[in-house]
Every structure is written in C-alpha cells, then in structure tokens.
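Hi,

Apologies if this is the wrong queue. I'm a grad student, and the batch job for Ammonium_transp domain-containing protein from Haemonchus placei produced an output file that my downstream script rejects. I'm not sure whether the problem is my script or the file. Here is the sequence I used:
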Amino acid sequence: LMIWWGWLAFNTSSNYSVSGQQWTEGSRSAVGTIMASVGGGMVTVLISRYTTKKIEVDMFIDGLLASLVSSTAGCLFYTPWQATLVGAIGSTLALIAYPVLEKAKIDDPVGVIPVHVVGSVWGMISPALFVCRDFGLEQHKVTNENDLSGLLYGGGVTLLLYQLAALGAIAVFSAFSAFTILWTLQHSPIGLRLSRLDEELGADLREHGLAGVNVMAYTIEKKLTAKTLSSVLMVILRWRAKAKLGAARRRRIADAGQQSETSKGVEMTRLQKRNVANTSRSPSQLRAA
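Support response: The file is valid. Your script probably expects a header line. Output copied below for reference.
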C-alpha cells in the first residue's frame, strides 16, 4: 500500500509544477495511475484464482506493482480505459514471466525481472500504441513534444521507433552501469558473492540463522549430502546457543534491575520510618537523642 501511494505521488508530480493549467496534468496522471493499478489488480486476482484456486498475496502485490510500472511512461496521455488496459496487460506479462524464468533456471527471488524489466518494457511500448494527440478538452488539451499519435490512432510507427530507441538506450546504459559496479565489487576486498557452500545453504541461514525457503525445499532442489546436513545443523545449533545466551543475559540484567529497585525500596522504607519516628518525638526527646 505504501508503494502504491509513493508511485501515485511519483507519477503525479513528474511535471514539477501546478501553476497555470499544469495542475490538470497531475490530476490526469493520477487517474491514469489509479486505473492502471485497478486493471492490474483485477487481472492478477483472476489469474491467481485460476492457477492456484486462491488469491495469493505475493502474486497480487507483484501484479499490482507491474501495472504501476507499466503506467509510468504514459499515465499523462492515457484515457481511463486505456490506462486500465495497459495495467492489465502489464500484470499479465509479468505473471507469465515468472514460470519462464523458473524454466530457464534464472534465480530472481524478489521478482525484479518480471515486475520492473517486463513491466517497464511494456510501459515504454504502450504509449506508442495508445497516445492520441487530440486527447482532452480543447482548453486542457494534452499534446506530446512532437505532436504525434500512437500506432492505433493513425500515427504510424514513428512514435514506436522513438520509444524503442529510448528503450534500447536505457537498456545499454543500465547494463553497462550495473556491470561496472558489480565487477568492481567482485574484485574489491568487500567481495560480491558468498562461497559455494553458503550459496547452497542460503544466506538466510548462514548470515541470519533463519531457515529460509532454500533450506526448507532442499530435498527438492538438490540432494542433501552429509556435509551440507552437518553444516546446516551446526549453523542452527550455533544460532540457538547464541539466542539462549542472549536471553539468559537479558534475564540477568532484568533481575539485577529488579534487585536494585527492591533494595532502593527497602532503603526508602527505612528512611521513611525514621522520618516518621523523628516527627512523632517531642523536641526534648530529639535533643536527648
């Protein structure tokens, strides 16, 4: 939900101005973003019910995010039904990409490729199909920089070629930047990858002591050997021992705090009794004492 609100703010504020009639661009972008997420959410629910017989929350979130990604490039220019269709198609393509990646044995546990790559590719292509230069009322007409329409509105392939060229430039820049950063990290003292054994066990277990999905499904992914089994057990036992020591230390600290509070209370009680006794004595008794 927080990502949805953030995406709505991002899309509606991308023109950086509300003066004059530019506030209408923000409102139109808001409608396009909301309708795209509605279309993507509805399609994701239907696909989830059809494939799993229930509504999978993680599938719903991924489909919703894919629809938001798909709407970003052209949310200003879409009519409500166009935005709904763009979001629905983006979610569908993203959900189709998941089994394709699994079949290709590409590890993508957080769904970056289906949501952000597939969604953004479709999001870059969709304006070249649906943009209409005559969209909007006459006093609030929205036109793109070159006054072009999309392929479905008689604009030909010019806008599509522009979008594909921009898509290619972004892909080359992103690939080069990512390769440079990752290659530098890999050859630095910090390093990039875990050891092979740690990768097989899973970073959740090795780094955090948590039995993640990789360990729970180990018999399915790879045959469990004596070496990996002993490593798993040793890691779990070590983290359990650390957890017990930490709990015992916290209990000792809490007990020490309670004892100090108790001793303070006893001392205060003694002082109070002494003060009461002193106040009950006469001045002559106090001088004699």
